[in-house]
Design brief:
TIM Barrel, 48% helix, globular, disordered N terminus, binds adenine, binds zinc ion
Length: 349
C-alpha cells in the first residue's frame, strides 16, 4: 500500500502533501488584505511613503504573535494603510492567486474590507478595480475562477455599512455577496439586519463571520436574522448539538480556518480543533486560510496542519475538498464537473 492510499490518518501512513495538493478544491474564506506578506508590506510602504513600525521582513514577522482577534486586527488595519492605488490592490491579489494556485485551488471566493480603505480616502472604485483586475489576471494565468465578497466591519456604524452597500450596487458585475467581519464580541449579527435585507433584496449572496470568538447564539442569529448561506468560522457550534443538527439539515457550510484559530487563541491546541467533530456530525465543514500572511500558512498548509493535529484520513480530506466545491457559489454544472474530477483524483491509486 502506498503512503497516499493509507486509510489511517497518522504516522508514516498519513496522506501526503502531494495528495492533498492534487485534490481540486476551493478557498471560501480569505481576506485579501490578510495576504499582505511583509515583503510586499515594506515595498508598498516605500512606494507610497507610508511609515511602518518594522523595516525588515523578519522584524515584521516577529510582531505576528496575537493574544486574540482584536490584537490581530490592530496590526491588520495598520498594514492595510500601504494599499493606496489601484495597482497596489492588483499586485496584492495577483500574488495571492499565484500562491494559492500552487496549493491546488481551482476556485476562490475573496473577501475585502472597503471601509478600511474608503475611510482613508481611497476611492471604492479603485479598490474594486484593483482586486477584480488581479482576479482576472489569475483566472487567465492559472484557470482559477472567482467571486468577490464585500465585508462590513461590524464594529463600525451600521450607517457606514449602508453607504458601502450603496457603492457596491454600482459594481454588481464583480461583487457577488456581502459578509460581516472584524471584532465579533459585543457586535451581534442582528445589528446589521437592515443592511443584509437590502443586500439580499438586491440579489447579493449573504455570508457572515460568527462563532469565531462569539457565542453559538451569534451563529443562529446570522442564519435566522441575516439569512446567510454560509457561516465563516462557526467554531462555537461545537458546544451546541441542536445547532449542529440545524446546520447539517440545512446544508449550511462552515468555512473554518485552523491556523487562524490557533494564531488567535480560539483553539490554541490544534489537536482540540472541532472541525473533525463537526464533520463527523454531518456539518458541511470546509478548510480555508483567513489571513495567511499573518497566520503561518496558505490553503494547503491549513489542510496539512489539520490533518497532522487531528489525524484526518484520506477520506476526511477528500470530503473537506468536496465540501469546499459544494459550498461554493459556482453554478451547479461547474460544481459537478469539479466534484467528478475530485472523485477521479481521489481514487487514482
Ligand atoms: N478580518 C480579517 N480577519 C478576520 C477574522 N479572522 N475575524 C474577523 N475579522 C477579520
Ligand atoms: Zn475571516
Amino acid at each position: 500500500m502506498s503512503a497516499t492510499s493509507a486509510p489511517g490518518g497518522s504516522g508514516k501512513n498519513a496522506p501526503t502533501a502531494e495528495f492533498v495538493r492534487s485534490l481540486p478544491k476551493a478557498e471560501l474564506h480569505l481576506h485579501i488584505e490578510g495576504t499582505l506578506e511583509p515583503e510586499m508590506l515594506l515595498a508598498l510602504g516605500r512606494r507610497n511613503g507610508v511609515a511602518l513600525r518594522c523595516s525588515t521582513a523578519e522584524e515584521c514577522r516577529a510582531q505576528y504573535h496575537f493574544d486574540d482577534l482584536q490584537d490581530f486586527l490592530d496590526l491588520y488595519f495598520e498594514g492595510v494603510r500601504v494599499l493606496v492605488g489601484e495597482q497596489d490592490f492588483r499586485d496584492l491579489t495577483t500574488a495571492y492567486l499565484d500562491r494559492v494556485a500552487a496549493d491546488g485551488a481551482r476556485h476562490v471566493e475573496v473577501f475585502f474590507d472597503p471601509q478600511s480603505h474608503v475611510t482613508r480616502g481611497v476611492p471604492f472604485a479603485d479598490v474594486v478595480a484593483g482586486i477584480a483586475g488581479g482576479l482576472r489576471d489569475g483566472e487567465k494565468e492559472h484557470g482559477i475562477s472567482w467571486r468577490l465578497i464585500m465585508c462590513f466591519l461590524r464594529d463600525r456604524p451600521v450607517a457606514e455599512a449602508m453607504e458601502m452597500l450603496d457603492l457596491a450596487l454600482d459594481h454588481r458585475d464583480v461583487i457577488t455577496g456581502v459578509g460581516l467581519d472584524s471584532a465579533e464580541l459585543g457586535h451581534p449579527p442582528a445589528d446589521f439586519a437592515e443592511v443584509y435585507e437590502r443586500a439580499r433584496a438586491a440579489g447579493l449572496v449573504a455570508v457572515a463571520h460568527a462563532g469565531e470568538e462569539g457565542p453559538p447564539e451569534y451563529i443562529a442569529e446570522a442564519l435566522e436574522v441575516l439569512g446567510v448561506r454560509r457561516i465563516d468560522h462557526g467554531v462555537a457550534a461545537v458546544g451546541d448539538p441542536a445547532l449542529q443538527r440545524l446546520l447539517a439539515a440545512r446544508g449550511i457550510a462552515l468555512t473554518m480556518c485552523p491556523l487562524s484559530n490557533r494564531a488567535l487563541q480560539v483553539t490554541p491546541d490544534l489537536s482540540r480543533h472541532p472541525l473533525k467533530e463537526l464533520l463527523d456530525a454531518g456539518v458541511l465543514v470546509t478548510i480555508n486560510s483567513d489571513d495567511p500572511a499573518y497566520f503561518g500558512g496558505y490553503l494547503l498548509e491549513n489542510y496539512l496542519a489539520a490533518q497532522r493535529a487531528l489525524g484526518l484520513s484520506r477520506a476526511d480530506l477528500v470530503r473537506l475538498a468536496r465540501n469546499s466545491l459544494t459550498a461554493s457559489l459556482l453554478p451547479e454544472a461547474r460544481k459537478a464537473e469539479l466534484v467528478a474530477e475530485l472523485e477521479r483524483v481521489a481514487t487514482r491509486d
